[in-house]
Amino acid sequence: MSQRKIGVTELVLRDGHQSLLATRMALEDMVDACEAIDKAGYWSVECWGGATYDSCIRFLNEDPWVRLRTFRELMPNTKLQMLLRGQNLLGYRHYEDEVVDRFVLKSAENGMDVFRVFDALNDPRNLERAMKSVQVAKGINPNVHAQGTICYTISPVHTVEGYVKTAGRLLEMGAESICLKDMAALLQPQPAYDIIRGIKEAYGESTMVQVHCHSTSGVTLVALQKAIEAGADVVDTSISSMSLGPGHNPTESLVAMLEGTPYTTDLDYDTLLQIRDHFAKIRPKYAAFESTVLVDTDILKSQIPGGMLSNLESQLKAQGAGDKLREVMEMIPLVKADAGHPPLVTPTSQIVGTQAVFNVLMGPYKRMTGEFADLMLGYYGESLGERNPDVIKIAEQQAGKPVITDRPANHLEPEWDSLVAEAAKLEGYNGAEEDVLTYAMFPNVAPTFFAARAEGPKSVAKTEAQLKAEAENQGKGLTGPVSYKISLGGRQHSVKVEPA
């Protein structure tokens, strides 16, 4: 039986640890796995972008550009892949076109190959410039690949036909492949089949389609199977020791699932086991950052990604309103509908979630965040559904600015020269364009990072000695009484507690 080869993108170096370990994994814990990853036979390895850039400078005192160059050196035979938020790049606002151009070109120059470009609203206007920049970057790196991305969600206005039409818009922009990106584990088997089949039938069997999904709901490995049967060319997985929960389906499970079918990955299984064993040793070092979510089928109804849920919990606890979580979860679909049913992915998940918290604590739209007002007024782009006109009026009143209907970046003034001037004043600035881009992405974090960069990376993982000591202490237990001194009614008391 001849088998069709299915490409695999390995996620462990980016979205794998972003989803499971709050993006805290240090480069030093990845480098020893790179040789095996490079020879395993992956179509690509996702290793940069998303939240990793922010985490590098905010938590790890690590230069993200050094991380990219290191991966390029250690994995010369594998395409490196990144997640790019269109006009948002890797930050949380729109950037002027020259900044977008320079970021994409520098990324290619430093070794990036596959640019997975998405927009939280699926607004093609927010993708145009980044996609054009990726095409230009081929002049720097001939291996550059432009991947247009569709963010998947479920709503009354999102349909199979609509997703297929969006794919056509991306192809017209020059996308060399289409990614169906399910960031919340909402993709069920039949819609997966229908969308992929629809794209193939509309634009030709040679149209390359890739599928990305998380595993939180417990149904998406089957969705990958159905997507492959529909014609998907590449799928995303994460090595088993860094998979499942709010993460992704295991790479080895995909390989096993396809045995005896008309499909094969051609991945070297023995090499996969080497990668698995490496990260099995690394993961316990980051236990403090582990997600507690294993399987959450409620997400199929609430559509609230696991990371968004934990963020909401922390917001409410900080306000002394931890008991309001259920009300907030019920409010989110209402706010999402008022905003035109945007997919809940960065930054819209944070924007919608925070406004839902405000609505519960203060009353519906009594106070509107600046970001939510901008979302309602079109400054993030156009939602697929109609936005609530009453809420739009409130946004206009509270924000003091009008609705816009054209491309949001058209309203931005040139900013590159001012970014260069501002970055140059910072202690530790090295004069490189990469530093200007770091400052542009995170102007509040970059000054601290630049000043401390010379001290070197600072891992937040536990050391092997700490892990060993913890294991030994857990094994010992209490062998004798423990004495405490307590104050009661203004008097000191000594208390001795005996082990049971």
For this structure, the quaternary state is single chain
Specify the number of helices.
Answer: 21
The average pLDDT is: 93
Count of extended strands? 12
Rg, Å, rounded: 24 Å
- Major β-sheet strand ordering: 2-3-4-5-6-7-8-9
Biggest sheet descriptor: 8 strands, parallel, barrel
Distance between termini?
A: 65 Å
Low-confidence regions: none
Describe the structure.
The protein is an alpha/beta fold and 500 residues long. It has helices spanning 12-21, 34-39, 52-59, 64-74, 97-109, 128-137, 160-172, 189-203, 220-230, 251-257, 269-282, 299-302, 306-318, 325-338, 348-362, 370-377, 389-399, 416-424, 433-441, 446-452, 464-476; strands at residues 4-5, 7-10, 44-49, 79-84, 114-117, 145-151, 177-182, 209-213, 234-237, 263-264, 482-488, 491-497. The strands form three sheets. An eight-stranded parallel barrel has the order 2-3-4-5-6-7-8-9, surrounded by six helices. A two-stranded parallel ribbon has the order 1-10. Helix 13 (306-318) packs parallel to helix 15, helix 14 crosses helix 15 (348-362) and helix 16 crosses helix 17. 49% of the residues are buried. The mean pLDDT is 93.
